[in-house]
Amino acid sequence: MADDYGGVIGAFPYAFRHSESWLFKCYVLAGAVATGIVSLLVVFGLVVLIGATAGVPGGSLTLSRSFYILVGLFIVAPLIAPILFVARRHRKTGSDRRYDLTLALSGFVFMASVYVGLVASVPAELQTPVGQTTGSVAVLFVNFLYDLPAIYGLVPPVVCALGIYGVHRLLR
Questions:
Q1: What are the residue boundaries of the structural domains of the chain, listed by start?
Q2: What is the pLDDT of residues 13-58, one digit of tens each?
Q3: What gap in Å lies between CA 76 and CA 81, rounded to an integer?
Q4: Do residues 146 and 127 touch, judged by C-beta distance below 8 A?
Q5: Does residue 8 or residue 59 have the better pLDDT?
Q6: Longest C-alpha distance within the chain, in Å?
Q7: Closest Cα to residue 103, out of 24, 160, 50, 157?
Q8: Boundaries of each DUF8056 domain copy (predicted)?
Q9: Contact 27, 106 (CB under 8 A)
């Protein structure tokens, strides 16, 4: 049964087939789509960055190109971590619906935290005004995120990525 696993790419269909949790199966699909989109954005962004800096000699620009790839990996790794954890668990010890469900929830929370982090890190000149409904919770939340310093945009994804690992350690 473990021979149909086939590494990182094979973990997606393996986890989808062997999980009993419908929420986790939805996360496998959503995680695959999100991973593909993030990977394409990083690759296209890197192509644009290389094109814009092609005439400049190496040095700090080479470091910024590498940093761009590293940031992409820091987003993709927590997206696929729940899938890899569940696939590994199913190969080693068998099925556990609670484990699958909890990791799916933590994966979806990570996806939301990336969005929250992106909203919090939008520069002031690029922020779009939110709706005119002053009492709306969403409007208040977006305004709160806009008022935070941009560096605080890193906090939600980092905390949620650590939470995915914590859930895995707690329930294994």
A1: 2-171
A2: 999 999 999 999 999 999 999 999 999 999 998 888 888 877 777 6
A3: 9
A4: yes
A5: 8
A6: 57
A7: 24
A8: 1-172
A9: no
pLDDT digits (tens, 9 = 90+) for 59-75: 666 777 788 889 899 99
Q: What tokens appear for 108 in the block?
A: 């979806």
Is residue 12 a contact partner of residue 34, using CB atoms and an 8 Å limit? no
DSSP collapsed to 3 states, the chain: CHHHCCHHHHHHHHHHHHCCCHHHHHHHHHHHHHHHHHHHHHHHHHHHHHHHCCCCCCCHHHHHHHHHHHHHHHHHHHHHHHHHHHHHHHHHCCCCHHHHHHHHHHHHHHHHHHHHHHHHCCCHHHCCCCCCCCCCHHHHHHHHHHHCCHHHHHHHHHHHHHHHHHHHHHHC
Q: What is the mean pLDDT of residues 1-19?
A: 81
Taking the model in full, what pTM does it have?
A: 0.88
Each residue of 75-129: pLDDT tens digit? Answer: 999 999 999 999 999 988 887 889 999 999 999 999 999 999 999 999 988 888 8
Name residue 125's amino acid.
Answer: E
What angle (nearest 5°) sits at the alpha carbon of residue 160, between those of residues 157 and 163?
A: 155
Are 11 and 35 within 8 A, CB to CB? no
Residue 104 neighbours by CB under 8 Å, 6+ apart: 21, 23, 24, 26, 27, 82
What tokens were used for 6?
Answer: 């086939």
